[in-house]
TrEMBL record:
InterPro entries: Thioredoxin-like_sf, Thioredoxin_domain. Residues 5-103 form the Thioredoxin domain. The keyword Chloroplast does not apply. Gene3D superfamilies: Glutaredoxin. SUPFAM superfamilies: Thioredoxin-like. This is Thioredoxin family protein. The lineage of its organism: Bacteria, Bacillati, Actinomycetota, Actinomycetes, Kitasatosporales. PANTHER family: GEO12009P1. Keywords: Redox-active center. Belongs to the thioredoxin family. It comes from the Bacteria.
Length: 108
């Protein structure tokens, strides 16, 4: 399993997120926005440290409206959890690494 942050698109959302065998953490971001870039850095650390236990992904919300709609995005940036194809909890803004990991039962 990859220990890198993956880029999810409208075309890959079902396969990469909804059909994933592992829990999935998805950051919906706006490229170039400082808060989104901060969130991506946190997600990259999670991917490096927990790569075999959780899929870590990002979605450019403007370029991928179908994935954004499927997640019922409320704001940007925002992190969503998906387990067994089901949409779980979401966190707005730039939460801490531990707060994000708790979405899928990992971390502190």
């Amino acid at each position: 399993m990859s220990s890198k942050l993956i880029e999810v698109t409208d075309e890959s959302f079902e396969a990469d997120v909804l059909r994933a065998e592992l829990p999935v953490l998805v950051a919906f971001v706006e490229p170039g926005a400082s808060s989104s870039e901060s969130l991506v850095k946190v997600m990259e650390k999670i991917a490096e440290e927990y790569g075999g236990r959780v899929v870590v992904a990002k979605v450019d919300f403007e370029a991928n409206p179908k994935a954004t709609y499927a997640a019922k995005l409320q704001s940007v940036p925002e992190v969503h959890s998906f387990v067994n194809g089901g949409h779980g909890i979401s966190l707005e803004g730039v939460p801490s690494k531990d707060e994000i990991l708790q979405l899928v039962g990992l971390g502190g």
